[in-house]
Amino acid sequence: MRYVEIYGVPIPRIVIGLSIVLVYLIVAFTLRYLLLRYVGRLAEKSETRWDDAFVAALRTPLTLNILASAGWVCIQYLRLPPDWNQTIDQLTRVGLIFALILFVDRFLRESVGIYQKRLDEMNLTQGLVRALLRLAVLILGTLVLLDTLHISITPLLASLGVASLAVGLALQGTLSNLFAGIQLISTRPIRVGDFIRLQSGEEGYVSEIGWRDTRIRMLPNNMVIVPNSKLADSVITNYDLPEKELAVLVQVGVGYKSDLARVEKVTIEVAQDIQRTVEGGVRGFEPIMRYHTFDSSSINFTVAMRAQHFVDQILMKHEFIKRLHARYQQEGIDISWPLRTVDVSKETLDTLTKASRSANE
Q: The whole model's pTM is what?
């Protein structure tokens, strides 16, 4: 046994080495405690949940990291045989890689909890998502670990590549819909409860965004089921974005002999009454009207009101047309209908008259 003299006292080298390792562990665990305590307080004060997930995922891997790094301290100060040093070095590397894998796995699991609401909207359980993420982390971590231990992973990568290609080809449609659904959830062009219109013409409320398809409940209470891949590539009109309120536009036409100033006054009064009394109208909004076209038999204008939601405009237009028609009749304002003037020559008119008389005889 080798000795080291300290102040003339021979002390075994192994005792000194173990003392250094012990001091290292005491200092490291003390710093770990202080660091986690300080970071934890900062996380409690912040509004975001990401720092909480980071602290929760850091605790156990940091402990494992300290224990693994103690192996290198042993190699430096214990003067062990070469075989022992090599074994401890490999165990230390394995411990550090395992600590990294454990940290990534726990951080991803905590992140799934943050996105719990969006996963519920997508009809995906947290257990399924966590299992898929854990499988991916374990596969990548195992490959890194094998490479660190100088074990050839080329055959394994080739096997995984062939298997992935086969699975990808077999599940091409399913995977396309899955990733399209994840894109819809992450970018949120539509949300559960939104009223949308598809490029193909169907419109209704989004009732569910699943991992394979999205379900839209139409106003007649029918369900349209659209694959996520087609929905992601389609042009969608979302009537609930950026807000639920929207303009209600009604096209009206009056005769050329009408007093336009009086028409404007009467029309605005009716629109204001609709805005105040009809359910679904935005209270306090001032309707407007603008003349825009000299048509063949009328002067046309647009009346703009405001509804709280897309379907509210149906009742507002219904009541507005009824009340405006009654008010125009009361005020003597002419709502014209299409007229056509036909220019017929005298010879043609005489011929038509004779033909009509002959037919009657």
A: 0.54
Q: Phi and psi for 40 in degrees, rounded to 5? A: -65, -40
Find the helix packing angle between 50-77 and 13-45, rounded to 10°. Answer: 170
Tokens found for residue 128: 């399924």
Domain boundaries, the chain: 3-165, 180-238, 246-331
pLDDT score recorded for residue 191: 85
Residue 268 CB contacts under 8 Å (≥ 6 apart), including other chains: 287, 288, 289
Residue range 87-116, pLDDT digits in tens:
767 777 777 788 888 888 888 777 777 666
Name the class of domain 180-238: mainly beta
Q: pLDDT at residue 49 above 50?
A: yes
**Hey, what's the torsion of the CAs at 122, 125, 128, 130, to 10 degrees?**
100
Condensed to tens digits (0 to 9), the pLDDT of residues 56-75 reads 777 778 887 777 777 666 66
Residues 6+ apart with CB under 8 A from 119: 112, 125, 126, 129, 185
Phi, psi of 66 (to 5 degrees): -65, -45
The helix/strand/coil state of 213 is strand
Please give the sequence-ordered ranges of beta strands (E in DSSP) within the chain, or none if there are none: 3-6, 9-12, 195-197, 203-209, 213-218, 223-227, 237-238, 246-254, 288-294, 299-307
- The architecture of the domain spanning 246-331 is 2-Layer Sandwich (3.30)
HEC letters along 71-126: HHHHHHHCCCCHHHHHHHHHHHHHHHHHHHHHHHHHHHHHHHHHCHHHHHHCCCCH
CA angle 141, 69, 37 (to 5 degrees): 90
Instruction: Provide the pLDDT for residue 102.
Output: 82
Give the residue among 178, 155, 334, 159 at the shortest CA–CA distance from 259.
Answer: 334
142 vs 134: CA distance, rounded Å: 12
User: Residue 152 phi/psi, 5° resolution?
Assistant: -65, 125
Length of the chain: 361
Q: Do β-strands 299-307 and 203-209 pair in parallel, antiparallel, or remain unpaired?
A: unpaired
Convert the pLDDT of each residue in 279-326 to its tens digit.
999 998 999 999 999 988 889 999 999 999 998 999 999 999 999 999
Contact 25, 72 (CB under 8 A): no
Q: 246-331: same fold as 180-238? A: no
